[in-house]
Write a structure and sequence with these properties.
The chain is mainly alpha-helical and about 750 residues long. Helix content is about 65%, strand content about 0%. Strand 3 and strand 4 form a beta hairpin. It is globular, with a radius of gyration of 32 Å. It starts with a helix and ends in a 7-residue tail after the last helix.
Length: about 750
């Protein structure tokens, strides 16, 4: 493995020169061959006959072919060396960039590649007196170490591949030139990884490590991933993966070995996902065949050890467990999901629910590694969660199973029995498959992958996405039990990113309020009461759902205030009246949420307050991403007459400031009122929202003067929030009486 200092200081000019020299040999050998043909072979033709002539001409023909083969080998070696130079130069550049970044931010790097924080602030009172500084520095240190490890890993894989390629003798014992020399390191590495996957028998620890390193270094490379998938084949890939995660009974794995296999699962899944997308721009029959073979292997049982009693998983289970990693092809996921539902429908018709069907009536079980998952629907949901286009398409479409139409969302949300337990989900910390369904819903409705925060590049909501949100809100309103344990956090994040629609939907007089609550290019979800209030009340009973919506309300109201201060004529009311109207809607959202929290089973438990407050604390990273949305997805770049082109930054600053105060624990505005309610008292909750809105109004006024003094801003906020909380109580009281059966 190339050391840190070796890669950093390596002189690659000799390698570059060698590549040029080998490539130049191509023309020289070709010239020698042409000269030999002209001066010798052609010169003798027609002037020499007989057995001796025939033998000589045969030798001359062979010599001419040798010149051609020599030219071919020289050219291919030249290309290989040039590719190696390009790869090493890229890794060296990445390493030097990391070094510059680290040293400029007061991180030191030794000649052994060890990174330490040498910021003088960490040895003073500054760190303890600056909220979040120590945590921020630690996170950056871990990031630098991880990135350096990745760079050195990639350089190692390239170095070993170059060595293997140059030592390879494709001609065996032949004395001729080697015309099948590799021309790229990707091809070498892909073939090496493929040979390991196709090896008969179990891999040694060293071979598992080598396979893991090859995949880790190339998992996002389309050329490598395509060649690896095609050369390995679907059956070989699934069979070896099944064998790797299911060692023989009685095998005891060390923590290091288990960690290696877990990493291999991630790297292999990402690699195969990359392979399925490698032909997105240009259809590739080989990749199409690989995908079809994966699909056909779905019902096939793979035996991890044919010499003993059968054990292992089937094709759907193996493929789905890999799908939890990487981004898989959209069309493939659609077809795969259709086949998966069809398989379950056949099982259901045979009297089996998913628990029994996927356990093979007890014949299938996870091996000692506990890798994989018995319920393949969980991994498939995660794959949708990583691909917004695919998740939106799948959850808004239907298929045919057993001759009957199956609406995908209804099946997954209402009809399907989701097996419970870490063995079924592949994640003991999330034993409910509804958690995975939530990942798919989150991706399908927001337009960005689950596990990533929204950003300025998050696309505007489409009509398809918005309609899905409307459908989900209505479904949960009619049957609150559909907000299953494990998916409320995703429902909360969905709601947070549709806050303009929530504010519009709570408007009782039916106005669209496009001037007051602009959507930009986003489609409207058309949310309406009573469904919206019931939905907010239900999701607000879960700590994670509550936290996400609270942060979404804080972000949206803060940037909305700044927008109207910057555009006082946008709605036609005075700034004071507009501020009161925003506070009214904010109070209504938070009031409904507060009532949901008050009435939740979680809150009534001994650790109720802690559960909700912990959720607010851990939701901070997601909340910071919300600040990039401005006053709605697709409208973050709305400009201010005062700010011009920098208005987008200014707008982000208002909500960013408020959320930073909430996240960091500096939960007080200038009046001394907490910005976050830490209990179930609705009066305290209202005062917290008023404090948050006052803080936002002050920040917005600093950027775009409203003409109001602090007292007027406070009066408008308090009046609006109090009325909003009153409406919230009315909504919950009215709708709860008509809840049964969805009556309105």
């Amino acid at each position: 493995m190339p050391s840190y200092i070796y890669l950093k200081e390596a002189d690659l000019s000799s390698l570059d020169a060698a590549a040029g020299s080998w490539q130049a040999l191509t023309a020289k050998y070709e010239g020698l061959g042409e000269e030999f043909s002209r001066r010798v072979t052609k010169h003798l033709q027609g002037h020499w006959e007989g057995d001796a002539a025939d033998s000589a001409f045969a030798t001359m023909t062979k010599a001419e072919q040798q010149y051609k083969d020599a030219a071919t080998e020289a050219g291919r070696i030249g290309k290989l060396l040039a590719d190696a130079h390009t790869e090493f130069a890229r890794y060296q550049k990445a390493l030097n960039k990391l070094v510059d970044e680290a040293t400029s931010d007061n991180y030191g790097i030794s000649d052994q590649g060890l990174i330490d924080d040498v910021d003088p602030r960490m040895d003073s009172q500054t760190a303890s007196g600056t909220p979040g500084l120590a945590e921020e520095r630690t996170d950056k240190l871990h990031s630098l170490k991880s990135r350096m490890k990745e760079i050195l890993l990639q350089a190692t894989a390239a170095d070993e591949a170059a060595s293997a390629a140059l030592q390879r003798d494709a001609n065996g014992k032949s004395d001729g030139f080697n015309t099948s020399v590799y021309t790229t390191l990707d091809a070498v590495e892909a073939d090496e990884a493929s040979q390991l996957m196709k090896k008969k028998g179990r891999l040694t620890d060293a071979e598992v490590t080598k396979l893991n390193n090859l995949l880790a270094a190339n998992k996002n490379d389309p050329e490598f991933s395509r060649r690896f998938a095609v050369e390995t084949g679907a059956d070989n890939m699934l069979s070896k993966y099944n064998q790797l995660i299911n060692p023989p009974a009685g095998t005891t794995l060390s923590k290091t070995e288990l960690a290696e296999l877990k990493q291999l699962q991630k790297n292999l899944g990402t690699t195969i996902g990359t392979a399925t997308t490698s032909d997105d721009k240009h259809p590739d029959p080989a990749i199409t065949k690989f995908q079809n073979d994966l699909m056909q292997a779905g019902q096939q049982d793979f035996n991890a050890n044919p010499t003993e009693s059968s054990y292992g998983l089937n094709g759907f289970q193996l493929t789905s467990s890999l799908m939890s990693n990487g981004k898989w092809d959209t069309d493939f996921l659609q077809d795969y999901g259709d086949n998966l539902i069809a398989a379950e429908a056949n099982g259901a018709n045979a009297g089996q629910n998913p628990d029994t069907y996927w356990s093979g009536s007890g014949t299938r079980a996870l091996g000692s590694t506990n890798l994989g998952a018995l319920d393949p629907m969980t991994g498939f949901m995660d794959a949708l969660g990583h691909n917004p286009e695919a998740s939106t398409e799948f959850l808004t479409s239907d298929s045919t199973a057993n001759g009957e139409k199956v609406d995908h969302l209804d099946y997954l949300l209402k009809d399907r029995h989701w097996p419970e337990g870490g063995g079924y989900t592949g994640d003991s910390s999330n034993p409910s498959g509804y958690n995975n369904l939530g990942h798919a819903i989150e991706s399908a409705t927001t337009g960005h992958a689950h596990g990533t925060a929204p950003s300025a590049s998050t696309p505007a909501h489409t009509e398809q996405q918005a309609a899905l949100v409307n459908r989900l809100v209505e479904a949960v309103s009619i049957d609150p039990d559909l907000a299953h344990d494990g998916m409320q956090d995703s429902l909360g994040k969905m709601t947070a990113e549709y806050m303009p629609d929530v504010y519009r939907g709570l408007n009782g007089d039916g106005e669209t309020e496009s001037d007051f609550l602009p959507l930009g290019d986003s489609a409207t979800a058309g949310l309406k009461d009573p469904h919206l209030s019931r939905f907010l009340y239900t999701v607000g009973q879960d700590p994670d759902g509550y936290a996400a919506i609270s942060y979404g309300q804080a972000q949206y109201s803060s940037d909305l205030i700044n927008y109207h201060f910057a555009h006082p004529d946008a709605y036609g009311l005075s700034n004071e009246a507009t501020l009161e109207k925003i506070a009214n809607r904010s109070g209504e959202v938070e009031g409904i949420m507060a009532l949901g929290r008050r009435d939740s089973d979680v809150q009534e438990s001994a650790a109720g307050d802690k559960a909700f407050n912990d959720a607010l604390s851990t939701g901070g990273e997601y909340a910071k991403g919300l600040t990039a949305l401005g006053i709605g997805v697709g409208t973050a770049a709305i400009t201010s007459p005062a700010g011009g082109a920098i208005a987008g930054v200014a707008a982000e600053g208002v909500s960013g400031y408020v959320i930073d105060q909430m996240v960091s624990g500096m939960e007080r505005d200038s009046s001394g009122q907490a910005l976050v309610a830490t209990g179930t008292d609705t009066v305290q909750s209202r005062e917290a929202v008023s404090a948050q809105l006052r803080d936002a109004a002050q920040q917005a006024d600093d950027q775009n003067s409203s003409g109001m003094n602090a007292a007027k801003r406070e009066e408008a906020v308090n009046r609006g929030a109090e009325d909003g909380y009153g409406y919230a109580h009315d909504h919950v009281d009215d709708y709860s009486r008509a809840w049964t059966g969805g009556a309105e």
